[in-house]
Amino acid sequence: MLVAFSVTPIGSGESVGDLVAEAVRVVRASGLPNRTDAMFTTIEGEWDECFAVVKAAVEAVGKDGHRVSVSLKADVRPGVTGALTAKVEHIERALQE
Fold first, then answer.
1. Which residue of 7, 9, 18, 80 is surrounded by the most CB atoms within 10 Å?
2. Residue 10 pairs with which residues in a beta bridge?
3. What CA–CA distances, in Å, run from 50 to 18, 36, 64, 95?
4. Torsion of CA 25, 27, 29, 31, to 10 degrees
5. Tens digit of each residue's pLDDT (9 = 90 or more) over 8-29
6. For residues 49 and 32, is the Cβ–Cβ distance under 8 A?
7. Which residue has the higher pLDDT, 51 or 78?
8. pTM of the predicted structure, to 2 decimals
9. What angle, 0 to 180 degrees and rounded to 10, lies between the N-to-C axes of helices 47-61 and 17-30?
């Protein structure tokens, strides 16, 4: 499955970049395939491992007692792997035609 999510601390001031970086640190340490862009971090794996990473990322952002907002979108396709890169590659090929 693919899980695209963002975590945003609420009540921590105007700049949230350092706290969001803690969430990305958790994702990268997980060992799951991942990609971070300006709006979301996407991870690929099995249901339980993906949601364990999301939970750990939320806990990292909220470690100082901050309220945390989570946006999440999942693409559940049992047996499919490599979708994190394959979907983008498909679009790039289509654009070249």
1. 7
2. 67
3. 22, 15, 23, 31
4. -160
5. 988 766 777 888 899 999 999 9
6. yes
7. 51
8. 0.88
9. 150
The CATH architecture one would assign to domain 2-96 is 2-Layer Sandwich (3.30)
| Residue 13: predicted pLDDT | 66
The residues spanned by each domain of the chain are 2-96
Place of tokens 């099995």: 46
Write out the H or E segment, with its range, that includes residue 6. strand 2-10
Q: CA 72, CA 51: separation in Å to the nearest integer?
A: 10
Cβ neighbours around 19 below 10 Å, total: 20
| DSSP string for 41-91 | EEEES-HHHHHHHHHHHHHHHTTTS-EEEEEEEEE--TT---HHHHHHHHH
